[in-house]
Amino acid sequence: MAKFEMDTEFVRKLAQVLHETNLGEIELADGERRIRIARPSVTVAAAPVAAAPQQPQAIASPPPAAPAVATPQASAEPVRELSPNEIAALVRRAQELLASGDLQGARVLLTRAADAHDARAALLLAKTFDPIALKQFSATDRGPDVAQARNWYQRAREWGSPEAQRQLDALASYARR
Known about the structure:
Blueprint: H1 8-21, E1 25-30, E2 33-38, E3 57-61, H2 84-99, H3 103-114, H4 119-127, H5 146-158, H6 162-175
Antiparallel strand pairs: 1-2, 2-3
Helix pairs in contact: 2-3, 3-4, 4-5, 5-6
């Protein structure tokens, strides 16, 4: 089995986000690595979490068969409904992460909020993949993903974002260059 090196500072940041947003768990996949941060009272399908103090725990898992976290797909695990306040907290924290250059962390939170069919979260998530809008974030990323941007803009439009259509039009013009 290959050695799994862990960035403990990144794990701490994820645990802080978990605590601040009151989520049950956060899962992040990057290439062949996957990490899930879960509250002790939450049971994770692959590895049950024993009762412990109220500190989030990191659970390293084998490489996932699925693509990165931000890919919009239905999950086999049931997703807890989010209240409008929880969605607003996720979006607010994601905006803070974007301002500090943490694109990956912001995408995790925005994906969770967008999975609750929040147009604002879907629009902001799309911008993190959009080659035009991505320039406004001071983050290093492996590059834009036009297909992901288009997919999330379309969802944002379906869920009522008037700005999403303008962004889709601009993205279509960009793709023709």
